[in-house]
Amino acid sequence: MSKTTTANRERAAVNKRIVVCTGDKGGTGKSIVARFLLDMYLANNIHVAAYDCDPHNPQLWRHYNRVLTGGVKTIKFNQWGFSEILKKDLSSLNPVVALMDLPSGVGEYFQDFVQDMADASLGYRITMVSVLGRVKDSIIQLKRLIEFCGNQVDYVVVKNLYWGEDEEEEEIFIRYNESKTRKSALELGTIEVNFLRLVDRVYEAIDFSDLTFTEAVTHESLTISKQARLSVWIPNQESELIKGGNFLRLEGAKPRDRNNLRKGLKNY
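Now predict its structure.
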């Protein structure tokens, strides 16, 4: 058995997770990934606390605040006292997952944040969800993330296929796939998943009405063709993120049935 496999199994014993969605800059898709993760946690009845740390583009709050018990909290990641606020919440609420959507440009604060959480001994392990675009900056950001945090956290790399149109995944992310950074990430046990492409007009319809992904499947503001596309895409995307297993606290989760989605059957 490899050292990486052994390490992953040991870390899988941690029952609670702080899942942090980050990217190299605005527009990589990290907020959409955070929204989809929250949709999955709600659909699977996973006790989750959610934090939107991007004051300039609070997508997580805008789409999910009204459907999440307790709401989505808005707070700046780099403000004084953030770690204390989070630790107080984790102690009082005891969520299985604390999901955070971060703005770009806060990497310098990661090291202190990771140390603060470790010192608190609250039983949480941090998972850094690094959302990649096709530009070199994505690799640089992941490299810095690894330098800041090392093996103190776990990593899930999300390859956002939105940027590839009709290209194959290998072509879109050739810089990353052939990089030393990827080798370093895999040596740390990083899990790689894809975020599948969804046509712009479906995203735009969801965004216009501030819908959750699940709501949008049956919402009157979407045409039947858009609803159909979404009902196929959601289970396929769930299958991808389920590969993150315990790192995302999705072990045991299963993709939803598209027919049940179309009938409006949901868990929240």
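The beta strands are 16-23, 48-52, 73-74, 97-101, 124-132, 154-160, 191-195.
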